[in-house]
Design brief:
The complex is a heterodimer of chains A (about 250) and B (about 280).
Chain A (H helix, E strand, L loop, with lengths): L7 E10 L2 E11 L4 E5 L6 H8 L7 E6 L2 E2 L7 H7 E4 L11 H11 L5 H14 L15 H13 L5 E5 L7 H16 L3 E5 L3 H7 L2 E6 L2 E6 L1 H7 L3 H10 L1
Parallel strand pairs in A: 3-8, 3-9, 6-7, 7-8
Antiparallel strand pairs in A: 1-2, 1-4, 4-5, 9-10
Helix pairs in contact in A: 3-4, 3-5, 4-5, 5-6
Chain B lengths: L21 H25 L4 H41 L4 H15 L3 H11 L3 E4 L2 E4 L2 H27 L2 H9 L4 H31 L11 H11 L7 H33 L1
Antiparallel strand pairs in B: 1-2
């Protein structure tokens, strides 16, 4: 239906850590503006998929195309790739010696060499967007987990990425702060940002996801649009997982 | 009531480098007073000038020596720190060969007695070096300083390596995902977080170096301890002057190193809470 090529195309990706085969031939596509959710039991390779997409982890075989650029290429310009692909981590990983605003500004100024005044204005806008107006000068240690995670989202947005990878971004949060982070992500999705979410928040996946992928032991067992996926998953492994979670 | 045989072993206290504390200073001062008093009593009988007057008379010379000790310690620390930071970075370099060389150098100089390194520096370094057409003399004190800078280098390298490795891996990953290069990550994100952690052990190291500078007297550098023994000889080698003179040197070092030790402990406590 959609004539444009996918923004992200993962084809038959294999990855071993030592003797353990973590990914055994994973394939999926993500179109521009789409939100896909990857769910599955722990240790099924969900986080590894994300780390492969922005080349934090090299893959053994297969192909990952990001906006036409092959990630599995020894001559890959990693810096160019990472400008297109943002990532938000479970443990936020903010830089503790910098203020929230500086965390957001650092990469555009020092990596992209953009004008400082322009970046600063954008950083203030992004802090407002993630509803942290007034917290610009706070250090990460002075913010709650949910606030830190939203700074991390703003930091990733400051690079103007084409796609953002979310690696279980609410897993380390208190239940009451999970919602504020999910609201921020939903707003991004509504703005048309392409998102790949690894998540345990099934309700959220059903609500914002355009497509759900279920992984188990290094393969994608089943996938589909959220409505059908959650209502009538076919594979017994998916059923069992959903029964435990829902 | 039945008592369950539960053996509760207290957790072993973390090892701490010995730090000078106030009691040591008190002991030193007390010792000096006693020594001076005893010498005073003996001197009075033999109609020698008072011990305090003797100490006072030689103070300018002894202070000159002490300042020399401080200068050697500062210079050795500066040279050793620069080399040590490089060596520490070498230990976490991406190149395995570089890592191995840096590791070997660090272990070698960290596990060698300081006095042996001092002898090596004194006897292996030439008395002058030619750089281009310029001849730079290497006097004994400078060679000794280089000798002291070697263990400083190795210990600093370990401090740097330990601090870098104590930073959570997520910091590297986050920087990498923001397109920071490895070098920029190190300088802008990792090392600034290391400074806090490195400062207390590094200051402790400085205290140790300062106290070790008296070893230079063994290889003929005219620092405070050498002068103390010369002063003693000049005063006729009277036995009752030994304790006051050497006690005087002890007090000088204590007064210099004690505040550094206190500051180190203070910083350690402050940083512990913050991180």
């Amino acid at each position: 239906m959609n004539p444009a090529p996918p923004l992200l195309s993962v084809r038959d990706v294999h990855k071993k850590f030592g003797d353990v085969e973590v990914l055994k031939g994973v394939s999926f596509d993500v179109r521009r503006g789409e939100v896909i959710c990857i769910i599955g039991p722990s240790g099924s390779g969900k986080s590894t998929i994300l780390r492969c997409i922005n080349a934090l982890v090299p893959i053994d075989s297969g192909s990952i195309l990001v906006d036409g650029q092959e990630v599995n290429d020894p001559k890959l310009d990693k810096l160019a790739l990472r400008r297109k692909v943002g990532m938000v981590f479970q443990q936020y990983n903010l830089f503790p010696h910098k203020t929230a605003l500086q965390n957001v500004m650092m990469a555009p100024i020092h990596v992209l060499k953009q004008d400082k005044a322009e970046v600063e204005a954008r950083a203030y806008r992004l802090m407002k967007k993630v509803r942290l107006e007034g917290k610009e000068q706070s250090y990460p240690g002075e913010l709650s987990g949910g606030q830190q995670q939203r700074v991390a989202i703003a930091r990733s947005l400051a690079m103007n990425p084409e796609i953002i990878l979310f690696d279980e971004v609410t897993a380390a949060l208190d239940p009451e702060t999970v919602k504020e982070v999910l609201v921020t992500i939903r707003e991004l999705a509504e703005d048309g940002m392409t998102c790949v979410l690894v998540t345990h928040e099934m309700g959220f996946a059903r609500e914002v996801g355009d497509h759900i992928y279920f992984t188990d032991r290094g393969v994608i067992v089943e996938h589909g649009a959220p409505k059908e996926f959650f209502a009538q998953a076919q594979d017994p492994r998916t059923r069992q997982f959903l029964d435990q979670i829902l | 009531m039945k008592v369950l045989p539960v053996i509760l072993r207290p957790a072993p206290a973390p090892w701490r480098a010995p730090v000078l504390d106030r009691r040591h200073g008190l002991f030193l001062a007390l010792g000096l007073v006693l020594a001076v008093g005893a010498a005073e009593a003996q001197g009075a009988a033999a109609a020698h000038p008072s011990v305090l007057a003797t100490l006072w008379r030689w103070t300018p010379l002894l202070m000159e020596g002490f300042v020399f000790n401080i200068a050697i310690s500062l210079l050795a620390m500066a040279i050793g720190t620069v080399m040590g930071v490089l060596l520490g970075l070498g230990q976490v370099a991406p190149s395995a060969a570089l890592r191995r060389v840096a590791w070997f150098l660090t272990q070698f100089f960290r596990n060698a007695p300081w006095l042996v390194l001092l002898f090596f520096a004194m006897f292996l370094l030439p008395f002058e070096v030619r750089v281009g057409g310029v001849t730079i003399p290497l006097p004994g004190w400078l060679k000794a300083t280089i000798g002291f800078s070697l263990p400083v280098m190795a210990n600093t390298a370990e401090i740097v390596r330990g601090a870098i490795q104590s930073i959570p891996f997520g910091q590297w990953e986050a920087a990498e995902s923001l397109a920071f290069s490895r070098r920029r990550t190190l300088w802008m994100i990792i090392l600034p977080q290391c400074v806090k952690r490195m400062l207390p052990p590094w200051m402790n190291l400085y205290s140790l170096v300062t106290m070790a500078t008296v070893l230079a007297s063994v290889v003929g550098v005219t620092e405070m301890l050498t002068l103390v023994s010369e002063v003693h000889a000049a005063e006729g080698g009277r036995a009752e002057l030994l304790a006051p003179l050497y006690g005087y040197a002890l007090i000088c070092f204590f007064l210099y190193c004690y505040p550094i030790g206190r500051l180190t402990v203070h910083l350690e406590r402050r940083f512990q809470v913050r991180i």
